[in-house]
Amino acid sequence: MASVQNFALLVMLLALVTTAIDAISTEEDFVRCQNTVRKWAASSNDEVKEDKHTLQDLLFFLHVPRTGGRTYFHCFLRKLYASTHECPRSYDKLRFDPSKPDCRLMVTHDDYSMMSKLPKERTSVVTILRNPIDRVFSTYEFSVEVAARFLVHPNLTSATQLTGRIRPKNNGVSTLDIWPWKYLVPWMREDLFRRRDARNQRFYKDVKESYDSYNMEETVMPLHEFINNPVAHDIIHNGATFQVAGLTNNSCLSESHEVRHCVRKYPTLGTYVLDIAKKRLSDMLYVGLTEDHKESATMFANVVGTQILSQFEALNSNSGKTATSKTELSSSFPDSEHDTNHLQNSTDDQKESETSSSVDTANGTMTVGKLMDAYEVCISSLRKAQGRRRTASLKRISPANFSKDARHQVPDVIIQEIISLNRLDVELYKHAKEIFTQQRKHLAEKLVEPEEQKTILGSLYGTSTWRPFLLAIAVLLLLLLTFFIVKARKQTSKLKV
Ligand SMILES: *[C@@H]1O[C@H](CO)[C@@H](O)[C@H](O)[C@H]1NC(C)=O
Ligand SMILES: *[C@@H]1O[C@H](CO)[C@@H](O)[C@H](O)[C@H]1NC(C)=O
Ligand SMILES: *[C@@H]1O[C@H](CO)[C@@H](O)[C@H](O)[C@H]1NC(C)=O
Ligand SMILES: *[C@@H]1O[C@H](CO)[C@@H](O)[C@H](O)[C@H]1NC(C)=O
Ligand SMILES: *[C@@H]1O[C@H](CO)[C@@H](O)[C@H](O)[C@H]1NC(C)=O
């Protein structure tokens, strides 16, 4: 009898203890995570850069996917740096070799953790940020676009086998080799083939006509499904913040992965990450905005471009001999043409490499004005080529077709969901906008300095596109003058009375 009572008591006690342990372990897990994140934050809080406005020996272009970094690379950086100055295999973490002696430019989708492999004091970082909603849309569309190119193949097996065999020519890097596309494209490709096979197997092929290209499940993974998939959680949402913090799923520091898991599990810990990302952004040499494209580009030319040019001037006068100005065909930048080459004849490749291959820096004939002119030409040709490729690719998933108008069809619920999934990026983007305003002020102050007035004004107003601004300033001055004259008259008339 006594033993039965004891047993019952024991069971009750045990139940109580396990519940308590559960609660304690959840609490413990949170505390453990909090400590992990705090420790990381403390170790990531670098000292304030003494002179962040001066370009150091190495330029690290932290390329957040789908922010337009590709145009900066092709239309600015490749005109300023000879390919001999590019750090080899920038986009290819495994083979990356920062030890190359005169490597001065690194452009990569790798995250900030790459800094651990670079000489920190001698490195300047630049980046471009984009409105998170547009970035998610663009990531979705580009994943579909690249994956849809494979639909020329009869089935998934033949599509994957062929890509496995063929490597890009000229030592180029395929989009499929680089993060995050190496995950996003195969995932989307598999999905596209599955949907096509399902369509073909159906007896009645009455495809439901939907007006919303972002929700055509017959043809392509709908946007709402895309943003809720674990893969999107792994690599897309808050992607800019994680990249600047060095915490992407591609990070080269082992502790990053635990920090990322903790932040995803306990969103409140995200503030630690956001603070580090904001601080790093503030310490960068330049931050551009995809939306303010034209102004961002001009600012890039004036803030970064001028310094690169004077760096090479100094280098050339010191060494006496000019660097090789010949651009090799091989580049570390992934060219989306490499992915199309084996699928269809691409007539765009030649043009694109022509427009991006002249490097005048070495013999000192490049100026910021010429750089902006060349940029205009380069970017319009690049955009045309990209547009053609996109149209050709999206034909394969017709009637789905992504456009600005189609985006307006997307229900507001989904937009709100994207915002809430990207809360950190929304905050970081706000911060980037503030930095951009400061940069604008800083540049305007530089404009006032008489020393530099000539060169910068020359570059700012050298191109005909700046004429409207000159006109606006003239009109403004005229208005001010009129205002003062009227005011002066009033005052004199008051004096008379
Ligand atoms: C895939 O397509 C190739 C080429 O047409 C064909 O040889 C192969 O049998 C197909 N595989 C399957 C699983 O249908
Ligand atoms: C990164 O994310 C992809 C896609 O979800 C996943 O397949 C991969 O295993 C992840 N890598 C790490 C290191 O977590
Ligand atoms: C690609 O070009 C080759 C030769 O120039 C031609 O034989 C072939 O039909 C073309 N393929 C396509 C898909 O246009
Ligand atoms: C500098 O190089 C460019 C193209 O590489 C060439 O057109 C130009 O004539 C060169 N200028 C001088 C002064 O050598
Ligand atoms: C998709 O829309 C673009 C313009 O937004 C148009 O040029 C293109 O032809 C369309 N493609 C299809 C397959 O309808």
From TrEMBL:
Region (Disordered): 317-363
Gene3D superfamilies documented for this protein: P-loop containing nucleotide triphosphate hydrolases
Keyword S-adenosyl-L-methionine carried by entry: no
Residue stretches spanning the membrane: 466-486
UniProt topology in membrane: Single-pass membrane protein
GO MF annotation list: heparan sulfate 6-sulfotransferase activity
InterPro entries according to UniProt: Heparan_SO4-6-sulfoTrfase, P-loop_NTPase
Biased composition (Polar residues): 317-334
Gene Ontology CC: one annotated term: membrane
Keyword Transferase included in the entry's annotation: yes
Annotated keywords: Glycoprotein, Membrane, Signal, Transferase, Transmembrane, Transmembrane helix
Organism field: Papaver nudicaule
Highest taxon of source: Eukaryota
Stored PANTHER family: HEPARAN SULFATE 6-O-SULFOTRANSFERASE 3, HEPARAN-SULFATE 6-O-SULFOTRANSFERASE
Protein name: Sulfotransferase
Subcellular location: Membrane
Signal peptide boundaries: 1-23
